[in-house]
């Protein structure tokens, strides 16, 4: 079974609330960036990224199945649970080969320019520092390329 796409809703949060109502999930990756207001998303997006303890019925939800939510830094916004910005960035750096690279780079660019042209508030875990350093210049130059 497939869920409605983002184009049928006024905002990303409305879409998430409608689709995920009653589900025990935490938005992660690009969907967390959208929930946090760090990435606008795509007009006809149909994928939602979640952490869940069990797989649900929808085919176009990226179900990242985990045993427990205990080690996840969670933020609640507009009736939704999502990973914190630091958690989201570190998770995306960890899963880099499987994520939406543009959403990560654009959100880092937005963060950089909204915070005095620095990344000081982002706490990158040591094991992901090399990956972060490999894309940080791309993030800084992101808006110069568009």
Name some characteristics of this structure.
14% strand; 146 residues; 5 helices; two-stranded antiparallel ribbon; three-stranded mixed sheet; alpha+beta; single chain; 36% helix
Fold blueprint:
Layout: H1 12-20, E1 25-27, H2 29-35, E2 48-52, E3 61-65, E4 74-77, E5 80-83, H3 85-94, H4 101-114, H5 129-141
Parallel strand pairs: 2-3
Antiparallel strand pairs: 1-2, 4-5
Your description of this structure?
The protein has five helices and five strands, in the order αβαββββααα. It has 146 residues and is an alpha+beta fold. The protein has one domain (6-145). The strands form two sheets. A three-stranded mixed sheet has the order 1-2-3. It has a two-stranded antiparallel ribbon with strand order 4-5. β4 and β5 (80-83) form a beta hairpin. α2 (29-35) runs antiparallel to α3 and α4 (101-114) crosses α5. The chain starts with 11 loop residues before the first helix and ends in a 5-residue tail after the last helix.
Which residues form runs of ≥5 with pLDDT under 50? none
Percentage of residues assigned to helices? 25-40%
Q: Strand portion, in percent? A: 5-15%
* N-to-C order of helices and strands: HEHEEEEHHH
Summarize the biggest pleated sheet: 3 strands, mixed
Nearest-angstrom radius of gyration?
Answer: 15 Å
Measured between the Cα atoms of the first and last residue, the distance is: 37 Å
Q: What class would the helix/strand composition place it in?
A: alpha+beta
How many structurally independent domains?
A: 1
Output the strand order for the largest sheet: 1-2-3
Oligomer: single chain
Q: Which word captures the global form?
A: globular
Query: What's the tally of helices?
Result: 5
Summed over residues and divided by their number, the pLDDT gives a mean of 92
């Amino acid at each position: 079974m497939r869920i409605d796409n983002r184009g049928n809703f006024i905002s990303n949060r409305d879409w998430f609330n409608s689709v995920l109502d009653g589900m025990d999930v935490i938005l992660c990756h690009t969907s967390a960036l959208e929930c946090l207001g760090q990435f606008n998303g795509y007009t006809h997006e149909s994928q939602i990224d979640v952490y869940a303890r069990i797989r649900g019925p929808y085919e176009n939800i990226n179900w990242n199945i985990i045993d427990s939510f205990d080690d996840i830094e969670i933020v609640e916004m507009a009736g939704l649970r999502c990973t914190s910005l630091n958690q989201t960035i570190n998770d995306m750096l960890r899963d880099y080969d499987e994520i939406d690279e543009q959403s990560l780079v654009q959100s880092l660019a937005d963060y950089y320019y909204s915070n005095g042209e620095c990344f000081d508030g982002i706490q990158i875990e040591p094991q992901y520092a090399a990956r972060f350093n490999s894309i940080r210049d791309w993030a800084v130059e992101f808006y110069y390329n568009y």
